[in-house]
Specification:
With 593 residues, this protein is an alpha/beta fold. The protein is 37% helix and 8% strand. The protein is built from 21 helices and 12 strands. Helix 7 packs antiparallel against helix 19, helix 9 crosses helix 13 and helix 18 crosses helix 21. The two termini are 44 Å apart.
Length: 593
Amino acid sequence: MEAYRKAASRLSPKLSPSALAQLGNSMEQALTDAPSSVYSIPESVRHDSFVLPNKDGTTSHPFEEAGSEVKSNPGAAIRSIGNSRRVFLLNSSLSPVELDGLSYRIRALASNDAINSILVANPLEDAESNCDMSENTTCLSSFMEEGESPSRGAGGPWGKHLSNSMKTLLHENYGEGLAVPIVSSGYDARGIYESGMHKHLDQLERKLMVPLISLSKAVRGSYDETINSSPSKVPLISIPNGLTSDSGYALLLGSYVLATHSTSLKILNPLRGLAFDPVGLSYLLPRLGWEFGQTSREYSKACGVLLALTGYEANAEDMVATGLATHYIGSPYKLNILERGLSELNSYAGQALRPKPKTLHGREQDNAYDVNEEFRNVAVGNLIQHISEYDAAGADEYGCYLQDDLDEETGLFLKDKDPSITLAEERIQMYGEVFSEFVSWGATFQDALLEPTVEGIIARLEEIAATKAEFEDKSGCEEDVMVAEQAESLVSSMKQRSPLALRTMHRLLQQGAESDETLETCMEREKKSQMRLFAKEDGDFVRWAESGKGVGLAGMKSIASISKEKEETFSNWNHASVKEVTNDEVEEIVSDA
């Protein structure tokens, strides 16, 4: 395919980049039977400005004629950065056709041994310019922007004249003042209602649910025999600089998830009358901390319930502490370093130290065995480790596990061979900032959160909240008051959500926690449950969608700049409380039939 593009470029040097991109995609569809949805995710071959609208209101998007489902402004775009490929998440939600197109793009790139990685991230300008991308029409990789992109005026809150190193310093010290965008919510739930897709189960399954599952598997690198996909070879790296919610987590299922200080995760679907989207969260949440053998694994089920049912927002430290993210990088501007490094690393095929074994005449060559398998993707992993402050397994940027070298008293500082040389306050602090409130609350409320019913969870939390009056005026009981206030907040949040959705999600978590469950079986169950909640006549989702109300985004921690006014949340659910939801109603939703 690349050869065809080069040939076309030589034949017509004046051919516009948009025309070249369209030509390349037409060839791809003709040669590989690519679905038409692939046009919805453009792949640029030059630094052309076809991705976003021009200032005069025009657009040079090359695929407007591809169909009515393709928006003039794509939700994502792909650019080449040397031996890597960068996926720009331009919109926080993708249309169903874009979900399908992105799934195909990622699956095709993941099996390409001529590159070394796929990097998925929302544009850095989102955080730099109060979520305003109107000045950026080129969608260049971050390290290529300086001196190559059109003028963007002030260039963000710190000004265009500042170097990236200075931006990093300012961002780390004053980052709370910057806008924090929504990375991805997956799809627009209200848009699904307005299109009428929720009324037709066959369309809902084919156009939304199946693409979500396909995207999740493509990002995760799963081999799918049903579509003749090739096995994934290169790692997918995600840098979610902002809030990810619900089905948006499908984009965080790859090999590496690098959390910045603005990264967070929240489950918002129960505020829409919906449950888990089919991305496997009912399987993953009961197993938090298992993959990396973290302390959080002791409270995994409680933490899973806390995140799913109460609307708790897990921040970057929480996500790394539970394995929802693999590394913590701190500043989002490290994306520049990563992009430049990936652009210069060898491709998957070029990561070879040993020569292929010689084949003697008359003997067949064994192509199944790769003599360089142990060297593949190692350089990418080393680069990621180098730019990270620490990873989910507890290693620092040098890949060293320092727990054995920390002092026994606090566990925060390196031991001194000669304690008389330095004072305690002068010692190098290694893990002082590594603390997860999410895991701490999961441990604190574990007994309550592991109640077998949602009614029991709420009742136990209400009992804890009621102790506030007992401890409020007592000296030395500040921690008890704080625990009671947190329990009160969790109860209040749960009561805002759809009772049927809460009962459904709790049942899905219980089933997903079974030892014989797999990610695929949980995705299938999530798909059927979600479709039934979507299609339920006069159900909670329909009521929410018709109300025009939102999910209270502006009230969330660190997300104050997303909207100027706090969204109202819906409350007129079919059931006044979870006690009114019958077991038969829940079984009807989650049944495998």
